Amino acid sequence: MDEWVEGWRIPLGTWVEGFVFWLQDMFPPFFNFLASVLTGIYEAMADLFTWPPVLVMIAIFGVLGLLARGWKFGIGGAVGLFGIQLLDQWESSMQTLALVLGSVLIATVLAIPIGIVAARSQVFSNLIRPVLDFMQTMPPLVYLLPGIFFFGIGEVPGMLATIVFAMPPGIRLTELGIRQVDQEVVEAGHAFGSPPGKILRQIQLPLARPTIMAGINQVIMLALSMVVLAGFVGAPGLGQEVLSALSRIEIGLGAEAGLSVVILAIYLDRVTASLGTRSGLGLSRLVKMR
Amino acid sequence: MAAIRAEGLYKVFGRRPDDVVRQLSEGASTEDVVAKGATPAVIDVSLDVQPGEIFVVMGLSGSGKSTLIRMLNGLLLPTAGHVHVGGKDVAELDPKSLRQLRSEQMSMVFQHFALLPHRNVLENAGYALKVRGVDKEARNKKAQEALEMVGLSGWGDRLPSQLSGGMKQRVGLARALAAETGIMLMDEAFSALDPLIRREMQDQLIDLQQRLNKTVVFITHDLNEAMRLGDRIAVMRAGRIVQTGTPAEILREPADDYVAEFVKDVDRTRVLTAAAVMEPASVGHDEYPAVTPDTLLADIFALADQRPLPLAVVDGENRVLGIVNERNLLHAMVSSDAVQGRNKEARHG
Ligand SMILES: Nc1ncnc2c1ncn2[C@@H]1O[C@H](COP(=O)(O)OP(=O)(O)O)[C@@H](O)[C@H]1O
Ligand SMILES: [Mg+2]
Questions:
Q1: Residues in chain B closer than 8 A to A206 (CB atoms)
Q2: Is residue A255 pLDDT above 80, yes or no?
Q3: Which letter does DSSP use for residue B112 in this model?
């Protein structure tokens, strides 16, 4: 009996391989375009973050922290980031920051419209739910493989994996935020004759803003958690440092790079968490959706 | 011509609504179709709302009032039947014309105010005008005027969260007034307010209505409110209108037990006296038929043929204490403060 069942085998692996080869044959311009967009965004950001003198950058981060949460956090943030410099991880950290923010930028630009459509269409919402589960639970190493295959090693497959892995909460919380908006207020928009697009921009998005911001905060945190994996496929930054610490069993370097990730994560988390509320002195108002 | 005319309106939620409408119109009972899983929220409702009147729809919660009022401005489409506003069939308008109708002819006031929490009071009051594309200056001027009408001048730069419930609803009212539409739809607009504030808002609406003469469809579950505000009242029960009439007609001749139950409460005519319901007036003691302060309303009604209204309420020394007119009497039939007035008087006497 067992032998008989063993004869059953779905050749899923072969199919996927065939599909990937086919994709590569059919759409080379598309993949080239994708690669150059991702590389372009990464390099622009990495240049931006590494170009100014370290202390200037730290001061800028400090001021952003101050605007977002107040002077205590501003100073604390600057001190923490200065710690990264003392650990000699500044350049890698800025590369990681570029990788993370570049991926988050793309993930957000995709997630918000998808979330909006999901909030408006129950059918679409039901359709994407399993896709989102898939994106979040499929071990990222698995889709890093075809990524390397298409794009070679470097920042591109790393960013792609980060985008796929980090995007779902952005979509989910955008959808949730819009669905949670007081229906009577939305109805008031309709009752006074406002067209749906304006209701979205003038009522639903502003009222969903805290939830959407919480989603973006989640996206950033998930993106940071992919840093080391991205290093595995050759993306520059702290992931590379961790990787070389691993391969050479350099406990010290591993600790330094790891601690730098933690500092970056805490800084980004606190700053973006404040964007959803009005606690900050001004940054939340600067980015307020209109 | 009626400002709003509804003919044979049905709204059925749930599966196969058209079949349910057919069954209902062929005589199936509501229970039958509910048992099959449908929710008939509005059943065969026809009504005419005349220009310049306050038309009240009253019924218990769940009787279909909100569904009905939302079909009037096309927020919900009828499963069957027609709504005509200014001669146009609302269901046949394309989305753009429908939006135009709402923005130019019908404004709405909501039970829970439905203000934009991220906009200040002035911006909220001017919202309808913004939707219509009125430029900022003209918009703010109109919004300011509307805020003055509801007694909120000087509050323009506050956020809704800084206002009390009554004030929020004044903003809701100002938003509808600033739109300068001929028709105002008010869905339980005062139901979320404390009784005292509610009275104030009712008085304010009556006052505004005397100046502005709008066509108002006012929804409430409160008979006192319906009687105070309504030129005519339609009583709804389980999706159907069971009676339409003036407050007096409804008080005197409730169409069925359901309406009678609303009206019943107490036999106020045997409780209230002329002194309790009169209003102050300076008239001579022989200008109107005279009654003593302790005359029961029942006696006033019984002798109405020989003593047409209004009546002068005159004390033992021929001093006129006040007059009683038809409005006082009708109001007294439903208002609890008249009863308190009587008790006070009894203690003094
Ligand atoms: N969108 C809807 N879907 C299903 N049932 C509804 C919907 N809206 C209202 N109903 C039902 O229709 C009936 C009438 O509701 P409603 O018009 O809100 O009554 P009222 O305003 O008089 O309290 C209720 O039984 C309610 O549950
Ligand atoms: Mg209701």
A1: 118
A2: yes
A3: T
**Residue A279, pLDDT above cutoff 50:** no
> Which amino acid residue places its CA nearest to atom 4 of ligand 1?
B13
Widest distance between CA atoms in chain A:
72
Q: What percent of chain A has pLDDT over 90?
A: 59
Q: Which two tokens stand for residue B148?
A: 């003055």
Q: Are A192 and B108 in contact (CB < 8 Å)?
A: yes
Q: Is the CB of B41 under 6 A from ligand 1?
A: yes
According to DSSP, the residues that pair with B323 across neighbouring strands are: B279, B312
The CA B12 to ligand 1 mean position distance, Å, reads 9
- Same domain flag for B210 and B274: no
Q: Which of A69-78, A267-276, B18-27, B86-95 has the lowest mean pLDDT?
A: A267-276
Residue B175 within any structural domain of the chain: yes
Q: d(Cα A94, Cα A84) in Å, to the nearest integer?
A: 10
Residue A202: list chain B partners with CB under 8 A: 116
From the CA of A182, how far away is ligand 2's center (Å)?
Answer: 16
Q: How far is CA B198 from the centre of its chain?
A: 12
Any chain B CB within 8 A of the CB of A182? yes
Which tokens go with A7?
Answer: 């004869």
More confident residue, B12 or A250: B12
Return the minimum-mean-pLDDT range out of A85-99, A187-201, B78-92, B282-296: B282-296
In a domain, A76, yes or no: no
Q: pTM of this prediction?
A: 0.80
Per-residue model confidence (pLDDT) at position A203: 96
Q: How far apart are CA B189 and CA A146, in angstroms?
A: 60
pLDDT along chain B (349 residues), means of 10: 94 92 90 88 96 95 96 95 93 94 95 94 96 94 95 93 93 95 96 88 92 95 85 94 86 81 66 76 81 84 83 87 86 55 41
A40: number of CA atoms within 13 Å, CB side?
7
Atom of ligand 1 nearest to the CA of B236: 22
B193 and B262 together in one domain: yes
Determine the residue among A183, A186, A187, A192 to mutate to test chain B binding: the one whose Cβ has the most chain B Cβ atoms within 10 Å.
A192
Count of alpha carbons within 13 Å of B269, Cβ hemisphere only? Answer: 13
User: What is the per-residue pLDDT for B267?
Assistant: 56
- DSSP class per residue in B3-66: SEEEEEEEEEESS-HHHHHHHHHTT--HHHHHHTT-EEEEEEEEEEE-TT-EEEEEE-TTSSHH
- Number of other CB atoms surrounding residue A215 within 10 Å: 27
Whether B276 contacts B262, CB under 8 Å: no
The CATH number for B124's domain is 3.40.50.300
**3-class DSSP state of B164:** coil
Report the relative pairing of strands B183-187 and B215-220 from DSSP bridges: parallel
Residues of B with CB under 8 A from a CB of A: 73, 75, 98-104, 106-108, 110-118, 127-128, 131-132, 175, 179, 185
Counted domains in chain B:
2
Q: Which pair of structure tokens corresponds to residue B248?
A: 């007096």
Q: Indicate whether A280 pLDDT > 50.
A: no
CA separation for the pair A108, A212 (Å, rounded): 10
* B245, part of any domain: yes
On chain B, the residues whose CB falls within 8 A of the CB of A193 are 98-104, 128, 131-132
User: How high is the ipTM of this complex?
Assistant: 0.78
CA pair distance A87, A90, nearest whole angstrom: 8
Q: Based on the domain organization, do B163 and B304 belong to the same domain?
A: no
Residue tagged 């309790």 (tokens): B276
